[in-house]
């Protein structure tokens, strides 16, 4: 890991990289389908009824799982970041931006189908999901901390 002046804020006192909060927010946002599925497993009476509260069709639930799969891969990669970075983690981080963009695009299709399902009615939840989706796109484009974190892990 080649640190440059100003990189002190990206590293802990132990020498490990700090995971950006923006990346954690993105992963949580993209894996909300998996979170809804886990919550539905605890609802013993009717598991499908709780999932229908979040997703009106099974295709939407499938899209949510598809959007969350690359985010789960990125989460596993983040758990492997230690003081010494293993070479396979470093090479795997080269595809992290592509995985996050893929999740963002699939999630956009999912949100488009959720919003168009009941188009004329306003829903605060849909508005917040759309705002979160736009925020994630903004962070993927312009977050210097996220870009520097990935560059430090790639060890270019």
TrEMBL record:
InterPro entries tied to this protein: DUF2919 (IPR021318)
Pfam families: DUF2919
Positions of transmembrane segments: 21-40, 60-78, 124-142
Keywords: Membrane, Transmembrane, Transmembrane helix
Protein name: DUF2919 domain-containing protein
Organism expressing this protein natively: Pseudidiomarina woesei
């Amino acid at each position: 890991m080649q640190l440059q002046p100003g990189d002190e804020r990206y590293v802990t006192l132990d020498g490990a990289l700090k995971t950006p909060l923006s990346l954690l927010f993105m992963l949580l946002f993209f894996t909300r389908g998996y979170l809804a599925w886990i919550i539905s497993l605890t609802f013993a009476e009717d598991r499908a009824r709780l999932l229908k509260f979040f997703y009106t069709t099974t295709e939407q639930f499938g899209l949510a799982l598809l959007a969350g799969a690359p985010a789960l891969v990125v989460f596993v990669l983040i758990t492997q970041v230690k003081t010494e970075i293993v070479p396979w983690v470093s090479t795997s981080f080269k595809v992290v931006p592509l995985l996050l963009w893929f999740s963002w695009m699939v999630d956009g299709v999912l949100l488009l189908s959720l919003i168009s399902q009941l188009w004329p009615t306003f829903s605060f939840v849909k508005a917040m999901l759309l705002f979160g989706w736009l925020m994630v796109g903004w962070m993927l484009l312009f977050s210097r901390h996220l870009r520097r974190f990935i560059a430090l892990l790639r060890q270019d």
